[in-house]
Specification:
alpha/beta, about 5% strand, 2 domains, D-Maltodextrin-Binding Protein, domain 2, rod-shaped
Length: about 475
Amino acid sequence: MRPVLTLALKDLRLLRRDSRSAVILFLMPVILILILGLSLGGLFEKKPDDRIRLSVVVEDAGLPPGVSPFDRPWSDVVLADLTDTADIRVERIPSRAEAERLVRAGDRAAVVVFEPVFSDRLQRCSFVGEPFKKDPINPLYRDGIRTRELGVTILRDPTQPVASSVIEQVVQVTLFRVVIPWMIGQAFAMIGTDPFMDRMEKYVPGLSLAYSVPGFSKRRLGDGIQKGIGAFFSSYNFRAKTWAGLTNSAPPPPREENRSAYEAEGEDGLALRRGTARYQILVPSYTVTFAFFLVLTVGWLFVAERRNGTLVRLRAAPLARWQLLLGKLVPCLVVSLVQGAFLLLAGKVVFGMSWGPRPELLLPVVACTSFAAVGVAMLVAALAKTETQVAVYGTLLVLVLAGVSGSLMPRDLMPEEMRRVSLLTPHAWALDAYSQLLVNPEPQVGIVWTACAALAGFGTGFLLLAWWRLSLD
């Protein structure tokens, strides 16, 4: 083993002199984790939410007690309808000024504002005019509800027309479900009243004479007309004031989970936020990704030795091929182990990352990941003949493997089919092991050891291919 150790020490001295490799392997991942943690960190901390976020500002002044049929402001009725709608998440923003700031900044495509007059105007909505309804409002037009007539303002970001249009349509549908039953219910309640029957005398000749018949009165006739119309349209309840009541259908179940609190980014929006969940994902992801950047370092080392004729002289030495391969492998494995330990330590010290409930199991994961990375590096070094080939083969391989495996994005956001395909890469197994140890509060040790075995298998296979393809010329 003495020749192997001699070769390993020689290569370690060469690697120590290579400042480019130190930057790539040690500093670059820390910088990338910092940048992504600041800019995209929130995406790693939340599960994907397929619900439409509808942001609202409520300035509605409401109505005097006893006026509203629901004993609450009409804005509460509308928000209840929105909240009880599937796939809608209602976010209540505290002020119009904050809503305008969010829209200007592009953080919200649109914000719905219920003006102070909203309850008053919706209360006045009616199919009929004076004298049946005082100061009536007809909010209906060809495309739906005139939101401005009701005191609803939609603040829009002009750079997001599609998203703002979707939000507007959601509001239109909800307003339709609230306004139409209210207008129909009021109109139907007026049928048979004295003002209604007085107006009917204008259009039905001789109706007033019928009132002189014994047992026949204006009130009885009005009640009969109302009951007859109700029986004719038996599928509907025109007396109801809600959409479920009008259509004789069950109301939707309450969905309180669709209410969400507005969380303002404060002045520390770009703060490091040490200890947040984002670093439990970012640190291992880029630890795995940059472990395989060892491909470039090892490839450049082999090419330099070929160019300087060192490999040709080694062929004349009494060394077996396996001894030469092992002598090259050991220093690279040492560098990779140091790199993995350094990045996990930096994750804890710089980013406040937790090492999980089983930190001792991180050691075999780091070791097996490094072994697989060294195997890939040795294979590329054995195949590449020039620095250009190392740069092309190595960079392309590293980026493709990182993209396919899920190193560049959370694996739980990948489609199920892609997650299965990603298991063809060593990265995916390493990420699964890290996920168990750093994210799962009760890590499945069996999954961790299975991942380590898979990584060891990848490393062994790559090294056998490298031994077969290694040329000393």
